[in-house]
């Protein structure tokens, strides 16, 4: 696919036009279809904030060599939601951008090689951490668009951010730390790293590597083993 050069500082209409030209995906129409499907489900305990529209994906400026899948853009501060112009806020500096850059550096690429998207590209009334059942119910209506995005870059490896994303794409009992070699007896890492295979009850049919979300880096286990898991992913991609 042609290099995607999106000017996220431009007006929203221009950004969406650029994205459509690069990807062939009409995100406004796709999200309108999703919103209409969700509306037919009836009242939700955590309603979608449709008036805030949706957050488009992030296309790096160079060849895409890594796909990142997040959960949703909803943050607790409602005013700050208006300032989110692309997935994971990767067009701006910040803790999350620094985290993604760290992952990229370990893999031998840059953030310009990243395509980032969320499973749910719209805002919920409140951050859905306490309404995981809502996400599960809404998942089928968002998977079709997610898979269209993945098809844009069939050779790019996929990583996910956060345990809820891992659970949504596999099963309710999945834990990121298990893929990072967590030993329940020693409470430490045994270096037995792993990834989600295509036959592991995998909703996207692509191998992917589960990462903790940026705030979880504060937990000692993830802090100690982030670099080791990144190296594991890099070595796997070479093999």
SSE inventory with pairings:
Elements: H1 12-23, H2 27-39, E1 58-59, E2 66-70, H3 78-81, H4 95-107, E3 114-118, H5 132-152, E4 158-161, H6 163-169, H7 176-179, E5 182-183, E6 188-189, E7 208-211, H8 220-238
Parallel strand pairs: 2-3, 2-4, 4-7
Antiparallel strand pairs: 1-3, 5-6
Helix pairs in contact: 2-5
Short synopsis of the structure:
With 239 residues, the protein is of the alpha/beta class.
Description:
By secondary structure, the protein is an alpha/beta fold. It is 39% helix and 10% strand. It is built from eight helices and seven strands; from the N terminus they run ααββααβαβααβββα. The chain has helices spanning 12-23, 27-39, 78-81, 95-107, 132-152, 163-169, 176-179, 220-238; strands at 58-59, 66-70, 114-118, 158-161, 182-183, 188-189, 208-211. The strands form two sheets. The chain has a five-stranded mixed beta sheet with strand order 1-3-2-4-7, covered by helices on one side. A two-stranded antiparallel sheet has the order 5-6. Helix 2 (27-39) runs antiparallel to helix 5 (132-152). It is globular and about 50 Å long. The mean pLDDT is 94.
Summarize this structure as a short list of keywords or feature phrases.
239 residues; alpha/beta; two-stranded antiparallel ribbon
């Amino acid at each position: 696919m042609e290099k995607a050069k999106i000017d996220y500082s431009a007006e929203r209409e221009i950004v969406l036009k650029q994205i459509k030209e690069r990807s062939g995906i009409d995100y406004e129409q796709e999200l309108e279809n999703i919103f209409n499907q969700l509306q037919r489900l009836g009242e939700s305990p955590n309603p979608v904030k449709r008036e805030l529209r949706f957050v488009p994906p992030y296309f790096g400026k160079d060849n895409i060599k890594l796909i990142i899948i997040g959960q949703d853009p909803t943050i607790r501060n409602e005013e700050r939601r208006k300032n989110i112009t692309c997935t994971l806020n990767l067009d701006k500096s910040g803790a999350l951008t620094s985290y993604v850059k760290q992952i990229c550096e370990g893999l031998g690429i840059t953030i310009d090689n990243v395509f980032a998207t969320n499973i749910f590209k719209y805002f919920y009334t409140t951050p859905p951490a306490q309404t995981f059942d809502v996400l599960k119910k809404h998942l089928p209506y968002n998977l079709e668009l997610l898979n269209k995005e993945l098809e844009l870059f069939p050779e790019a490896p996929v990583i996910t951010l956060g345990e809820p994303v891992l659970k949504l794409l596999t099963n309710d009992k999945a834990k990121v730390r298990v893929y990072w070699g967590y030993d329940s007896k020693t409470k430490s890492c045994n270096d037995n790293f792993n990834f989600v295979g295509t036959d592991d009850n995998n909703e996207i049919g692509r191998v992917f590597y589960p990462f903790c979300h940026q705030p979880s880096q504060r937990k000692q286990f993830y802090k100690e083993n982030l670099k080791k898991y990144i190296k594991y992913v890099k070595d796997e991609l070479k093999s």
